[in-house]
Each structure stands twice: as C-alpha cells, then as structure tokens.
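Reagents: none. Just compute today. Class I SAM-dependent methyltransferase.
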Amino acid sequence: MPPTFPSKYTVSARFYDAISAEWPIYGAGRAAAIPLLHLEAGAWVLDVGCGTGLNFPWLQRRIDPSGLIVGVDVSTHMLEQARRKVRSRGWSNVQVLAGDATTATAARLREPIDGAGYDAAIATYALSLMDDWPAALATMAAACRPGARLAIVDMQPPQGHAALWSPLARLACRAGGSDIHARPWTLLDHYCEDITARSVRGGHIQVRVGTVR
Ligand SMILES: C[S@@+](CC[C@H](N)C(=O)[O-])C[C@H]1O[C@@H](n2cnc3c(N)ncnc32)[C@H](O)[C@@H]1O
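Predicted 3D structure written out:
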C-alpha cells in the first residue's frame, strides 16, 4: 500500500517547528527521553522519522562533534527543513537520509556508519504515524549494536484528570496523521531489557528507553 502520511508533511513542513506545540507539550518527551539514552561523546545516534530535526540540538549537546547523528524520514519536505537546520547551525556531523522506515533494511540505515551498529536510536512522535510500525521498530533495533540504548516517545490519550484534554490530544494526533491508539512502546521489550518508563503531560506522552539485547 502506498504511504499516505507524507501529504501531512508537505506544505506544513515549513511551519512544523512553529505549530507543533513543542514548547508547551511535545518538547517534554524529548527532555524525558534523551538523558536516558546515556549518550557519550562520540556516540552514533539514529533518529527514525526525524522530521525537521527537532531532536538534533538535544542530541548534539551530548555527543559532541566527534559523534554522528543519522536522521531518516520519508518526507522530502521535512528533510529539507532538517537539512536547512543542519546547515544554519553548521553541524558537520549530521546526515539525513530519505527513506521509509517500515521497509528500509538495517544495512541501509547502517551505511553512514560503514555497517557498524548505532550506539543509540530514537523515534519521537513518529512510529504512531506508520502503518507497519512494528517493522520500523524491528529495523531500528537491528540497526543498533547490542548494548545500545533505544528510545520511543509517542502519544496516547491523556489519563486521569488530564483526560479532560483528550479531545484536543485526539485532534492534534489526527491533524498530524498519527494513530493515538498505536502504543508502539508496547513492543519495546521484544528487543530491549532494562526498560525505563516515563509518562509526561498527563500521560499523553509516553517514554520508554531500554538497552538493546
Ligand atoms: C509528527 S512528525 C515527528 C518528527 C520528529 N521526530 C519530531 O519529534 O518532531 C512524524 C514524522 O515521521 C515521518 N514518517 C512517517 N512515516 C514514516 C516512515 N514510514 N518512515 C520514515 N519516516 C516517517 C513523517 O514524515 C514525519 O516527519
């Protein structure tokens, strides 16, 4: 089946950083997840569904210029914004690849690091957009070395008192093309151990980070 999601990220790609509620809501998922990757200077990090590269500054602060970030995304418009960000910040240690994470092979994702395994991989608000997210997660894990850290940040309806905000959360997810009921973190234990869980913004944002077996 041809992918339908890129249409969500064509014209809107130029405004994505401004309209994606990063500061009040979704940045909190990155803030919770990225420290749990335990990145060291020189680390190689894979960012699946990297979009405009909103994770890149967070990752850069931890890997220093000797590390490498490889972002993959199916939307050429989002990648164009990511490349623009990389150029304007003068980052020479970021590569972005066009590709569908549900059909890409681990070998393809490992090409920028000469076939070695990544030290860490992350997917923020991306797997829930993919029809076959289990395939993307399997490939993400296969692209990592054993002992690498793998993080999933994704969405579900807000819980408890915050359930009041559910209509808004559903609307935001529908507008972005994600399935709020996908719960892609539920398969992380197939690939990882030592999983740490965090729940932020009233449970709307779920974070899971584990160590690849
Ligand atoms: C909501 S945006 C999130 C972008 C970024 N990870 C962030 O945290 O801001 C979802 C991204 O996933 C990408 N995406 C959706 N399906 C994909 C697929 N099958 N393979 C690669 N990227 C995909 C979209 O193009 C979009 O850039």
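Helices lie at 16-19, 22-33, 56-63, 76-89, 106-110, 133-142, 166-176.
Action item: order primers for follow-up constructs.
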